[in-house]
Amino acid sequence: MAAVLEVLVWWIALTGIWLVLISTVDPLEVLVGAVAALAASLLARAGRRAVAAQ
Question: Which of 1, 14, 48, 53 has the most CB atoms lying inside 10 A of its own CB?
Fold first, then answer.
C-alpha cells in the first residue's frame, strides 16, 4: 500500500507541474503529461529504492 501511495503522490505532483508549465491545456496534452508523469513516478520510486538499498 505504501508503494501505491508513493507512486500516486509522485504522479499527482508531476502531473500538476506539467499542467502548470504547458501553454495550452487540451485533452491530448493532459493525456501525454499524465502518461509521462506515471512513467517518471515509477522510475522515481525505483531510483529511491535503489539508493536506499545501498
Answer: 14
Helix (H) or strand (E) segment spanning residue 2: helix 2-21
Could you give the count of Cα atoms lying within 13 Å of 21 in the half-sphere of its Cβ? 7
Which three three-digit cell numbers place residue 19? 499542467
Q: Report whether 15 contacts 39 (CB < 8 A).
A: no
Sign of the alpha-carbon dihedral angle for 28, 31, 36, 37: positive
- 14, amino acid identity: L
pLDDT (tens digit per residue) in 1-54: 999 999 999 999 999 999 999 988 899 999 999 999 999 999 999 999 999 986
